[in-house]
Automatic annotation (TrEMBL):
Organism (species): Haloferax sulfurifontis
Subcellular locations according to the entry: Membrane
Recorded GO CC terms: ATP-binding cassette (ABC) transporter complex
Signal sequence residues: none
Keyword Zinc-finger carried by entry: no
Bilayer topology term: Multi-pass membrane protein
Protein name: Transport permease protein
Keywords: Membrane, Transmembrane, Transmembrane helix
C-alpha cells in the first residue's frame, strides 16, 4: 500500500472515530442544545418577541433565529475540537495518531472536519427547533451554506488551538463560557446594530461574531448590516490561517509532547 493510500485510509479512520465519538452520545451532544434553544425561543422569541414586534423589518423571533444557530454551531464546533484534543492528551491516546503514518495536515483535517460536522448538525437542529416557533425560509442558500461551513471550520480550528493550550478541564470551560459566549451575545444575536448608539456600533464591528451572525442572517432572511461578500472573504482567509496554524503546532509538537 502506498504512502498516499495509507494517509487517506488513516484520515478516514480518524475522522470516523471522531464523528462516532459524539454521535454515539446524543444525550451529551444534542439534548443540551435542544433544551437550551427551546428556552431561548420560548422566552426571547415568543414572550419578548410579542413586545418588540419587528426588527429590521422582520419578526423578532425570526430575527434572532440566525444568531442562535451561530451560537449553537460555533460553540459545539469549538467544544468538540478542544475537548477531543485535550482528552486525547490527558489519556495519552492521541499518541496513536501521532505515531501513525498520517501526515500532520491529515490529522488536523480529521479533527477539524469532524468538529465542524458537529457544529453544522447542531446548527441544523436549532433551525428545526425554530421552525416549530415560526416560518423559516432561505433567501440566499449559497451564502447560508458558505457561512455555516466557514464559521464551523474556523471555530473547530480555534478549538484545536484551545485543546493544545489547555492545562486542565477548567481551561476549556473558561474559554467557552468567558470568551466565546460573550462574543456571541455581543455579536448582534438579540439586537440590531442600528438600535444601539453609534459609539457602540463602531466597537461592535471589532467583534468577528457580528460578521458571522449577519452572514447567516443574510442567508436566511436576505437582511444584513455588513457586506456579506467582504465578511465571507475575511472569514475564509481567517479560517485558512487558523487551520494552517493547527498544522504548524502539530508539526512542532506544541502541547502534544512533554
Amino acid at each position: 500500500m502506498s504512502l498516499t493510500s495509507l494517509d487517506v485510509t488513516g484520515f478516514y479512520a480518524l475522522l470516523r472515530r471522531e464523528v462516532l465519538r459524539f454521535v454515539r452520545r446524543p444525550r451529551n451532544t444534542f439534548v443540551p442544545p435542544f433544551i437550551t434553544n427551546v428556552l431561548y425561543f420560548s422566552v426571547f422569541g415568543v414572550i419578548l418577541g410579542e413586545r418588540i414586534n419587528e426588527i429590521a423589518g422582520v419578526p423578532y423571533i425570526l430575527f434572532i433565529l440566525p444568531g442562535l444557530i451561530v451560537l449553537g454551531a460555533v460553540s459545539n464546533a469549538f467544544e468538540n475540537a478542544s475537548f477531543s484534543i485535550f482528552h486525547g492528551r490527558w489519556n495519552r491516546y492521541i499518541e496513536e495518531a501521532l505515531t501513525s503514518p498520517l501526515s500532520y495536515s491529515s490529522m488536523v483535517g480529521a479533527y477539524v472536519l469532524s468538529s465542524a460536522t458537529r457544529g453544522v448538525l447542531v446548527g441544523a437542529l436549532v433551525a428545526l427547533i425554530g421552525a416549530f416557533f415560526t416560518s423559516v425560509g432561505v433567501a440566499q442558500p449559497f451564502y447560508l451554506v458558505a457561512f455555516m461551513l466557514v464559521i464551523t471550520l474556523l471555530f473547530a480550528g480555534l478549538g484545536v488551538v484551545g485543546g493544545l493550550w489547555a492545562d486542565d478541564f477548567d481551561d476549556l470551560t473558561m474559554m467557552n463560557q468567558f470568551i466565546l459566549r460573550p462574543l456571541v451575545f455581543f455579536g448582534g444575536v438579540f439586537y440590531s446594530l442600528n438600535e444601539i448608539p453609534e459609539t457602540f456600533q463602531q466597537a461592535s464591528l471589532l467583534n468577528p461574531m457580528v460578521y458571522m451572525v449577519n452572514g447567516v442572517r443574510y442567508g436566511f432572511l436576505g437582511v444584513t448590516e455588513v457586506d456579506p461578500n467582504l465578511s465571507l472573504g475575511v472569514l475564509t482567509a481567517l479560517t485558512l490561517g487558523v487551520v494552517g496554524l493547527n498544522v504548524v503546532l502539530f508539526r512542532r509538537g506544541y502541547g502534544l509532547t512533554d
